[in-house]
Design brief:
The structure is a single chain. It is built from 14 helices and 13 strands. It is α/β, with parallel strands linked by helices. The protein has a seven-stranded mixed β-sheet, sandwiched between helices. Strands 7-6-11 form a three-stranded antiparallel β-sheet, with no helix packed on it. The site of pyridoxal-5'-phosphate has 14 residues, from helix 4 and helix 5.
């Protein structure tokens, strides 16, 4: 601690802090090597084991692995029978994947505004966006904080909508003591390089519906019926049938090997992120020029992201310049996310009107994501804090 406070005062040594580094140790390396040495490098025993262990971890009856969360979202929408001309409600502030999968069907992503405090989908606004064409809603557990699931499920019941959870940020996250992954009709997780459990690229879909799970298992591997990969083992045979035009969305055993090792430390990694979030919030809580993330009391965030909201009225600089100032101090930050309606593709194709999303508009100019990952040292965390404090001191009004 003495060293830390000394560091706080002197702070002359510039550090380089990347926005993210996956936490990979010898455990991941030896599992991956094991897969390569075994000669079985694509979907096989490790993928099946990972599905089983992930399903147990989430507490879900079915876990179906994919090569990405985006693939999972796509097949989830296929499973519920999304059709051309249907509408799907998604939050205005999310990654493009949440909405792009809807366009695969020539269906329309309809944007709902987000809550000013949690940045999660605003259920009241979502309710206003429901039409006769609305088939589903895709809530995103932003930064790892669960959405208002009770209200969402009530809304879905009232209008007969499917709930497909985009849980790309939510391993693990809790809503009223229940882990995310069993509440909606289908939940999609991401194992992308920056996510809280990573296999480089990868995803998993959980559902309590056996029929949908089976359908997604078939569709992820060319529409081939029943565990086609087994045909290369001594329990399988050369015979298979194609029952649908499917996709090439399967996970590989190399990815699953990483996943198995990551799953063993997933709760520890969560504790580490919680610790970092706690330190940030303690430090920034008393700075009027910024607002710290607001997590509702009946839920727990996965802390995939730590999103600071700049109180621009009290600063002489905007968010973009804040990011540059952080960068000049060696700290890489990011923005999650540019609202969908601002991107040329969505703006031009669906003619979204930015004035319909006042909260998203206000938030999107103020948010900045700080580094938060288990490999950060106490000195790294302190350096990020000092950098933010330094910029605020320099530019406050
Ligand atoms: C990362 C992310 C995805 C996509 O995950 P992939 O595994 O890269 O396909 C989807 N939604 C959100 C909100 C994300 O952050």
């Amino acid at each position: 601690m003495a060293i830390l406070s000394l560091h706080r005062k002197t702070k002359k040594v510039k550090r380089e802090i990347p926005f993210h580094r996956p936490y990979i140790t010898e455990e991941e390396i030896s599992e991956v090597v094991d897969s390569i040495r075994s000669g079985w490098i694509t979907m096989g025993p490790k993928t099946i084991k990972f599905e089983k262990e992930f399903g147990e971890y989430i507490g879900s009856k079915n876990a179906v692995s994919m090569n990405s969360c985006t693939a999972g979202l796509h097949l989830a929408l296929k499973a519920i029978g999304l059709q051309e001309g249907d509408e799907v409600i998604v939050p205005a502030i999310t990654f493009t994947a949440t909405a792009e999968v809807v366009t695969y069907f020539n269906a329309k992503p309809v944007l709902a505004d987000v809550d000013t405090d949690t940045f999660n989908i605003d259920i009241a606004d979502a309710a206003k966006k429901v039409t006769k064409k609305t088939k589903a809603i895709i809530p995103v557990h932003f930064a790892g904080q669960p959405c208002d699931m009770d209200e969402l499920i009530d809304l879905a019941k009232e209008y007969n909508l499917f709930v497909i959870e985009d849980a790309a940020h939510a391993i693990p996250a809790f809503y009223k003591n229940r882990k995310i992954g069993t509440m909606g009709d289908i939940t999609c997780f991401s194992f992308y390089a920056t996510k809280t459990l990573s296999t480089g690229e990868g995803g998993m879909v959980t559902t309590e519906n056996d029929e949908w799970a089976e359908q997604m298992r078939i569709l992820r591997l060319h529409g081939i019926s029943k565990d086609a990969w087994k045909r290369y083992t001594d329990i399988g045979s050369w015979y298979y049938e194609v029952v649908e035009a499917g996709f090439k969305y399967n996970m590989t055993d190399i990815q699953a090997a990483m996943g198995l090792a990551q799953l063993k430390k997933v709760d520890w990694m969560w504790q580490m992120r919680k610790k970092i979030a706690g330190k940030y919030t303690e430090a920034f809580g008393s700075i009027y020029e910024v607002a710290t993330p607001h997590v509702k009391t009946d839920r727990e965030s996965a802390w995939h992201l730590y999103v600071l909201k700049l109180n621009l009225e009290m600063l002489k600089i905007g968010r973009d310049q804040f990011i540059e100032e952080m960068k000049s101090r060696g700290v890489i930050t990011s923005v999650h996310f540019i609202p969908l309606y601002e991107h040329p593709y969505y703006r031009d194709t669906f003619k979204y009107n930015q004035h319909e999303y006042p909260s998203s508009e206000s938030i999107s100019r103020r948010i900045v994501s700080l580094p938060i990952y288990p490999g950060m040292t106490d000195e790294d965390i302190e350096y990020v804090i000092v950098s933010v404090e330094d910029i605020i001191k320099k530019y406050k009004r």
